[in-house]
Design a protein that fits this description.
By secondary structure, the chain is α/β, with parallel strands linked by helices. It contains 22 helices and 21 strands. β5 (111-120) and β6 (126-129) form a beta hairpin. The longest helix is centred in the middle third of the chain and has 27 residues, at 226-252. Magnesium ion binds next to α10.
Length: 694
């Protein structure tokens, strides 16, 4: 029977109900969805190694005839199946442990493919221990040998080998002749059909020459074969279409329309404690234009730490509040919510709008009061945390949602807050510069504004790398800075969500720093401290009563203490680069020359040291982000996984930026011609069980 990509897996011979259930548990129900479970790597098993060349320690593929076969029972528990195979020239001992059924599966005289690691023989020469095996078939074909063989991530109890068998069976009966409507759209001339591309990706045609095979394996690992490219195009086009659809849907909605009047302009001027930078002015124009449009704004405000996003958000808030709608500002932590609340209160002081605070730490009575104000419409501006999108919170007329540090929130959370209004405007602010390719996918449905200029008077932060042995000198340096009016952060790499041990660890660490800085007031904050206590310490640090703040990464985002001029980071090699950049951004905010000291741990290896040194040389957040991305990939990138986007199966955003931009271009072009739906159909998208990945 011929199979097509959209067929359910139940149509595939060899997929029983049990396997089907396991696969369905991973969202895999159709032939296409299974085929989009792409190999994680490939092994060259194309040609057997002559048996005389098998050396202990090597992973080998061999082929030979079974000369001898016997079963031994060692003690009552252990069964050993021993075979001798020969390729006509030499022979090799093969041993399988505890697989008694092999005795009946194998027969003397049979020809077998074997793949495994050669070990020193117990009696002489080398032997294979429990290798993968496969009978050579009459037609010379084999699934697991005699070719470049795919290796898969197992799916539940379905092993890589089992998957390989299923893929081979499906691909053998897949209709490859069917015209593929997408082929004409793809760049690069004679594009492969999807079915051909899937076949060539799972089971690449192996060239005869060893050098050519090595080259192909390398290309495969880098996802650059023509077949892989074809899959990447398909996948990214699917992604681009869904982003374009989200954009279109939004354009059809009607938002609270704002008009910027002279009164608003006057009030805006009154709120400003300083002249806006060029970049701030440009971004504000973009935002205000959106707010006056008919459709809701959906804009990402992208700016390096310290670029002054908050004041831009405050002005947008003012515009919407003046137009009679409500604004919700959401921060990732209570600490940040409180800081924003203080900033917004200060900035909006010359206006009639008094921001409320809604965080989990308030008493029930206080929360109720704020909620009543929001539901009744008497409160125009609220700053808060997750408490904002809880069930009990509702708004009379939510006009603008501002989300700070977006990567801490999931898409679902963002949508829940948005659902509390009738198509509210959205402003997402991120201080984590992210690589362009990630921005295009993660925030691909948003317009982007960039603050690419720091407010005047900022000094570049001098970054130095020091060995742990330099601690005393660093302590001396901090002491000097403090005596000259500076303040310092001293960050330790304890994980916030680990057990109480880390609380003890940071306490003892702080004692050590206190000892080294006798006479200097040192405070301690970490995520396990009760919020009230933490706020107290932070407030004292902000007021300059505490000079040195020993902290975990709770201070990573947003905290703004202009007098702080030194950031010491212990065990800097344990942090991601983007995180180091965030931490470094906490200093250099006032007029003082500022320093970031990266202390390396005792066990820091050469590679980690080099990574930290590369970071020290980079000052631009975007460059740091690209470097971090290159090193660690999107999965590691500042919690991107929490975003809930499906992982890409074929594309690697580090490699395929050009393809991504191509896909966005195609989707935008079809959208302009009003043919997005048609493109989605070509991609097999509607219904979700077409030819795309699961
Ligand atoms: P971020 O983009 O990291 O959120 P903030 O909004 O916290 O940056 O701004 C960082 C600091 O710079 C704050 O102390 C803020 O008051 C100040 N600031 C912002 N814009 C300007 C400006 N145009 N001129 C001078 N100082 C500014
Ligand atoms: Mg900020």
């Amino acid at each position: 029977m011929r199979l097509s990509l959209a067929d359910p897996l139940s149509a595939v011979a060899g997929v029983g109900p049990r396997t089907a259930a396991v696969l369905a548990g991973s969202g895999i129900r159709t032939v296409a969805e299974l085929l989009w479970h792409l190999p994680s790597r490939w092994e060259d098993r194309a040609f057997p190694l002559p048996l005389r060349e098998v050396r202990a320690g090597d992973v080998v593929t061999v082929c030979g005839q079974v000369l001898d076969l016997r079963v031994r029972r060692v003690r009552s528990r252990l069964t050993i199946v021993e075979a001798a195979v020969s390729d006509g020239e030499s022979s090799l001992a093969v041993v399988w442990f505890n697989q008694p059924y092999l005795a009946s599966s194998l027969q003397v005289g049979q020809r077998l493919w074997l793949h495994g690691t050669a070990r020193p023989g117990r009696r002489w020469g080398v032997e294979l221990h429990s290798p993968e095996w496969e009978k050579e078939r009459d037609d010379g074909e084999a699934v697991h040998h005699g070719r470049i063989v795919p290796v898969y991530r197992r799916i539940g109890e379905v092993s890589s080998r089992r998957l390989r068998g299923l893929m081979a069976r499906i691909l053998a009966s897949l209709d490859r002749i069917l015209p593929d409507p997408l082929v004409g759209l793809l760049p690069g001339g004679a594009a492969l059909s999807l079915a051909e591309a899937l076949t060539e990706t799972h089971f690449p045609t192996a060239p005869a020459g060893l050098d050519e095979r090595l080259k192909l394996l390398q290309q495969l690992a880098q996802r650059r074969t023509p077949a892989q490219k074809r899959l990447v195009q398909q996948e990214l086009l699917g992604l681009a279409v869904s982003l374009e659809k989200a954009r279109q849907l939004r354009r059809q909605q009607r938002a609270v329309a704002c008009r910027v009047t002279d009164q608003i302009r006057a009030r805006a001027r009154a709120t400003l404690p300083f002249r806006l930078t060029q970049a701030q002015r440009r971004v504000l124009r973009e935002i205000v234009a959106d707010l006056q449009g008919a459709a809701p704004m959906a804009r990402l405000l992208h700016g390096d730490v310290g670029s002054g996003k908050t004041v831009v958000a405050a002005l947008a808030t003012l515009v919407v509040a003046e137009c009679g709608a409500q604004v919700a500002i959401m921060a990732p932590t209570e600490l940040l919510a409180q800081q924003h609340h203080a900033t917004f209160t200060r900035l909006l002081a010359p206006t009639p709008h008094r921001p409320a605070l809604l965080v989990g730490g308030l008493s029930e009575g206080e929360k109720r009061q704020v909620r009543e104000g929001l539901a009744g419409g008497s409160l125009a501006v609220v700053v808060g945390t997750h408490a904002l999108f809880q069930e009990e919170t509702s708004f009379a007329r939510l006009g603008l949602v501002v989300i700070d540090e977006q990567h801490r929130f999931g898409v679902a959370q963002r949508q829940r807050l948005m659902a509390k209004g009738d198509a509210p405007h959205l402003l997402v602010m991120t201080a984590t510069p992210i690589p362009r390719s990630l921005a295009l996918t993660l925030y691909g449905d948003l317009e982007v504004s960039v603050l690419d200029e720091l407010p005047p008077g900022r000094s570049r932060v001098r970054t130095v790398v020091r060995d742990g042995g330099a601690r005393d000198r660093v302590l001396g340096f901090v002491r000097r800075e403090v005596s000259e009016g500076g303040q310092a952060y001293w960050v330790v790499p304890f994980i916030e969500d680990s057990e109480s041990l880390s609380v003890r660890a940071i306490a003892s660490h702080a004692r050590e720093i206190r000892r080294g800085l006798a006479g200097v007031s040192v405070g301690v904050v970490h995520g396990r401290l009760p919020a009230a206590e933490r706020d107290q310490v932070m407030a004292a640090f902000l007021a300059g009563e505490i000079k040195v703040l020993c902290a975990t990464t709770v201070i990573e985002v947003g905290v703004d203490v202009p007098r702080a001029s030194v950031m010491v980071i212990e065990n800097a090699e344990r942090f991601g680069l983007a995180q180091l950049h965030q931490l470094r951004g906490r200093v250099g905010r006032g007029g003082r020359a500022s320093y970031c000291v990266l202390l390396l741990g005792e066990e820091c290896g050469a590679e980690a040291r080099e990574r930290v040194a590369r970071f020290a040389a980079l000052t631009d957040g975007f460059a740091v982000a690209e470097e971090d991305f290159r090193q660690r990939g999107p999965g590691e990138f500042t919690g991107v996984r929490q975003w809930g986007r499906p992982d890409l199966a074929a594309a690697d955003l580090r490699i395929h930026l050009a393809e991504l931009e191509w896909a966005r271009g195609v989707a935008a072009r079809w959208a302009r011609r009003g043919q997005l739906q048609k493109l989605a159909r070509l991609l097999g998208d509607p219904g979700g069980h077409g030819v795309g990945p699961a």
